[in-house]
Here is the input.
Amino acid sequence: MDHFNLRHGIAHCEDVPLPAIADAVGTPVYVYSTATLRRHAAVMHQALAALDEPIVAYAVKANPNAAVLATLAREGLGADVVSGGEYSRARFAGMDPDRIVFSGVGKTADEMALALTGGLFQFNIESVAEAETLSRVAASLGIEAPAGFRINPDVEAGTHAKITTGAADNKFGVALADALDAYAHASRLPGLRLQGVAVHIGSQLTSLAPLESAFTKIGELIRDLRAAGCDIRVADLGGGLGVPYDPGLPPPPSPYDYGEMVARVTRDWDASLVFEPGRLITGNAGILLTRVIRVKPGASHPFVIVDAAMNDLMRPALYDAWHAIEAVEPNGRRFTANVVGPVCETGDTFATARNMDEVGEDDLILFRTAGAYAAAMSSTYNSRPLTPEVLVDGDRWAVVRERLPLEALIQRDSVPDWLR
Ligand code: LLP
Here is the structure.
């Protein structure tokens, strides 16, 4: 459930009519709902209530806006970070370092030092070579690094190939077959406290079966590691549970189904659990609000050209992702159209042959499920200034990221002397 609904024929975010935001800030603009963020955090906690004080470490990459992070920190969420930038943002927003896990396949020594000196719950290390670097950095700082290996369990996640991470050929983690050797090697390195195991097999998963299969393998590994003398106390089960995008499709398993499965599989693990949901928390807590520039005829269907483009919301171009598209003030009529942005690529297409609310020039439309991997992945391609973000809370709202002024965009470049 989210808080983007029609009231008196006008789409609102909570108590704020979306046209009021478009008039004040311009379009395109991302709009996030505090009530939805809070609800998703609460659902995740309730779904995991049978477990002993799990850490829910929100995957910052999904939406790293400081106001979003500050909202989630107040709900007791920690952070899963994958870069020094994400670590710094999480701390800036008030995230408790004891609830921060550091994932990512290519952590640099500088990033390790940043998190070690600032504090964190655990590094999820992805290779023996990375363990060696972490050992060196930790020993040189005189700080013990809490760590676990991310394991690649070789399961097929059944999601889009570009967001599958737990298959043998993917770049992530240490192969299950090499795990015991990796722990044995790392346990001899100075500066490391090997306390955990981690797994994350992909994103937007619409079945629990691959997750259950991966977790079962992790349970067996924990048993083997303990038998080999490793004191494993933490299991980080990653993120990945899918969210509904298309109301016409069966919804993915609910967080409650997920929590029930986890409780069953991990019953006798005797380990603290960490979770890294991203999309589940922010996906349906945001929309992208955009205005129709004009409608032009097409060979099969009219083209609705909007002022948002692939640089603002990349998911359709990158993953053929489907986002619900609705008029902000629907007139009751429907038509079939292609919805496209102004960027000079055919890939700049949000929807093809979509049956949707009829819209015309200057009308506002919204793209749903744009709170995760949307603003976070935006760029300035075609010299389009980064889209602003707004956070709504009841009847109040604030700009939480300014539109990057065009001058600032251009002034980031410099022309060398010899060209002046
Ligand atoms: N933990 C790790 C180590 C991850 O790599 C990810 C996502 C997550 C947690 C959070 O996964 P989630 O719960 O959000 O599924 N840009 C793509 C998604 C990329 C996901 C990358 N890793 C998209 O727009 O679909």
In short: Residues 59, 62, 80, 103, 163, 200, 203-204, 238-240, 276-280, 315, 319, 373 surround LLP (CB under 6 Å). The longest helix spans residues 209-227. DSSP finds twelve helices and 21 strands in the chain. Residues 4-32+283-411 form a domain with the Lyase, Ornithine Decarboxylase; Chain A, domain 1 fold (CATH 2.40.37.10).
